[in-house]
Amino acid sequence: MLHTEPEAKIFSCSKSTYLAEKIAERYGIPLGKVTLAHYSDGEFQPSFEESIRGIRVFLVCSTFPSADNLMELLLMIDAAKRASARHITAVIPYFGWARQDRKDKPRVPIGAKLVAKLLESAGATRIMTMDLHADQIQGFFEKPVDHLFASTIFLPYVKSLNLENLTIASPDMGGSKRAYAYSKFLGSDVVICYKQRKEANVIETMELIGEVVGRNIILIDDMIDTGGTLAKAADLMIEKGALSVRAICTHAILSGDAYEKIERSQLSELIVTDSIPLKKQTDKIKVVSCADLFAEVMHMVQNNNSISGKFLM
Fold first, then answer.
1. Whether 107 and 95 share a structural domain
2. Any idea what DSSP says for residue 40?
3. Burial grade of 37 (CB within 10 A; 0-12, 13-18, 19 or more)
4. Can you point out the beta strands (E) in 131-215?
5. pTM confidence score
6. Structural domain of residue 227, as residue ranges?
7. Is 184 one of the catalytic residues?
8. Is there a single domain that holds both residue 239 and residue 179?
9. Whole-angstrom distance, CA of residue 252 vs CA of residue 129
10. Per its UniProt entry, which superkingdom is the organism in (predicted)?
11. Which of 143, 195, 240, 310 is catalytic?
12. In this structure, what CATH number is given to the domain that contains residue 174?
């Protein structure tokens, strides 16, 4: 009797195994076997340890720093292409380099476009990601992009808090669209923070557009890096009369002294997904897993079903 192989397999880059294992469990298949050989100079080579000929492979890899994560994903895509995989879906919960989505000054690269071209050149036939820093990055690809929204997992948690006088806030003008989308579903007011930067990750001034007195505030953002913006916004809102300030950030980059800034700030809670692993645990940070969301959409893609029901924004 011929042994029948499953029509899809899930593999993971080395730094995303913690999430890929949960996705595979919820999908209903074991995580595929892949090894990573290292050379003494730091070069590495991934190898699939099982046949992937003629099937769809899902490669789970968040491309957070270092650049080795992106390089590992590119090598895995190339290996899958050369192993005759039928479809190669790059599942990138956190799409790194996305902040370089345009030329904001002369003589700089558009890094997000470059990464898109690298993924396609390597052989990816589909991209699946969540809460891109800029929606227009989807247009950098010539292949299908499934852009999922973490609001589908954050909104039930927000509703479970049963907060009175709820107000949604954006930490900057660029995030106002996201804040208004959340406010629409929650029936709340919106506050916008207007900030000016001296340089990247350094805020010079911040002002509030909207009323926060006597309100429970939830700041919405796609990522938190140094934590400076959210910490400053929370402190300013409490100073202006807010009852409490929470923050929802899909991707917890949390570089430098971000954890210390969060602890010292007036934020009562920071809610994030597990698209990026936390460097350490703290009582102020609540992690909501995105594994169910990705597993469900991967099932839908494999079975050629519509995924429009997973878009709340």
1. yes
2. T
3. exposed
4. 145-148, 166-170, 189-199, 202-209
5. 0.93
6. 151-288
7. no
8. yes
9. 15
10. Bacteria
11. 195
12. 3.40.50.2020
